[in-house]
Design goal:
This protein folds into four domains: 2-107, 2-Layer Sandwich (Histidine-containing Protein, Chain: A), CATH 3.30.1340; 115-136 and 226-328, Glucose Oxidase, domain 1 (3-Layer(bba) Sandwich), CATH 3.50.30.10; 148-221, no CATH class; 332-601, Phosphoenolpyruvate-binding domains (TIM Barrel, Alpha-Beta Barrel). It is built from 21 helices and 22 strands. Phosphoenolpyruvate (PEP) is lined by residues 370, 372, 407, 499, 520-523, 565-566.
Length: 603
Amino acid sequence: MKSILSLFTKVNQIIITLNAPHGVHLRPSATMAKIAKEYKCKTTLIIDAKQADIKNMNAILALGLQNGDKITIKTRGKDSLEAINALQNFLLTLANDETVQESTQDLQNPNYEGNISEGKGICGGIAIGVPYFYEAQYSKSGQNNISFDQAYLSALKELESLSEDNDIFIAQKAILESISHASYEEFITSIDEATKSLKDTANKVKIADYQDIARRVIKIMNNEKSLSFPHTPFLLIAKELLPSDIANLAKENIQGVIVRDLPPRSHAALLLRSYKIPAISLDITKLESTDTAMILDGSQGILVVAPTKSDLESANNAIAAQFSNSMSANEKRFEPAITKSGKHIKVLANITDRASAIEAKEAGCEGIGLLRTEFLFRETKPTLDKQVEAYKSIFSLFDEVTVRTLDVGGDKNLPYLTLPHEANPFLGVRGIRLFDTHLELIEEQLLAILKAKQNGELKIMFPMVATVEEFLHARNVTISLASKHNLSLDGILFGIMVEVPSVLFLIEEFNEVVDFYSIGTNDLSQYLFAIDRTHATLNIDPHSNVLYDAIKYIQERATKPVSTCGELASDSDAIERLVEIGINTLGVTPAMIPTIKARIRDV
Ligand code: PEP
Ligand code: MG
């Protein structure tokens, strides 16, 4: 590194040609800012006509400094000579910077010195704020200023408008419509009965939705105004949270959420993730009200109850790093995700309808890896024409689409489809098994898919396949249907979700008949560990070696293209291992596409 040092009284300046093979990325920028902050003098970095305050990490990052850039560092003030020496010494170390990846993670996952309460991460990210204790109310008594009938209709209207943004409220609206509501008493009795009957079942996470619906109606009857929240940044602490709480909170000054009971797959947890509100679930009984800020670290699942000054500084740096990472990921979202060794990993989206298809396109996906068609069927069964229209409106947006036939049963129910009550619905009639029980419904869907097909390729995928015979039967049904209706099968590929463990041991036979595989890591984990994926207290380790080994087993033996479409590929921490295993196509939640692409570029 060449440097010319010129000294003036209390103003110092050096001109440096950067020798930094990895560029001045996150860690060097953060370190430079940290060094500069140790001195009182003014510190400025200048390149061409641009300049940045060196104490501001984001300002340095925004300059996009590269190896070989000629930069000027200027310090002005009492300790300016010491500052410029410290900065120059640090810049010299960049020539041998081998710590790009590791250090980025250190910054994102700080080690804290203060008192820590350990919990479970629900939504990643770091937040700082003063705790605010909140009690979700659900009381059946009240002033009843508004009649029940009126309140019922208003609640329906509210859910209608909320459902434009989130599927969860579509489900709640369907529940509200299906509940007996001839009178207030009948309505409450139905809610109580539903709660009781769900209690010890696989669907008990839905109890919160019933309570939420009742609370919405009662609040309207009592003319209750919304609660007011602090005007300064706060961390919300609650025993429980219902989905509508979160929709309201997202508009407030909330930084993060700490909840006692929050099953990771509950609707409230899914909503927190979709609003990207850092959250943990933790025993809140020992937390006390205070005016001092705490640090919530959703990625590490901890609350720093009494942070030190240096904890707050690290957390602030991590928040700034998260922000600038997500800004730069967003800027590059339409670019392909290519690993450092030059391998292109295709990033597809998992979607449910046209709205999420548009969101995915805007987020930079390269096609659709999983269209979960259940959501197009949700309130009432759509007619054949409506289905054709819905599929066309999605297929026309992308060159590559994988459409999955109806996967109902288990945790996915449709209000108008009566499936027999089963003690273990996850092990019962669901997915491809509907070909035996509801053939007409499935045939109508397949017909709509074939009619909606555009030029080029379309992948039809069957869910919950356990045997080769099931797949062959489903494919034959589709082929007969096409010939009966004179529809072409040109460009149609047939594949399966790999989510039932038996497929692993039948892979050689499947290789003979399928065109592609997509690994559904959500269900595959649930069946590998025999833990209900919606269970309130039992959790599956999302990064268990068992799951990665199963993926590897398939990848190594499959002779047809393999992709993944479960939640695993939306988790940055899984990407390196998936790429190492050799997976080259990932199905990702739309909101996570820019981040996952950025993570792939780091592998
Ligand atoms: C899966 O099981 O991993 C999957 C993608 O399907 P779903 O979550 O819709 O069951
Ligand atoms: Mg599945």
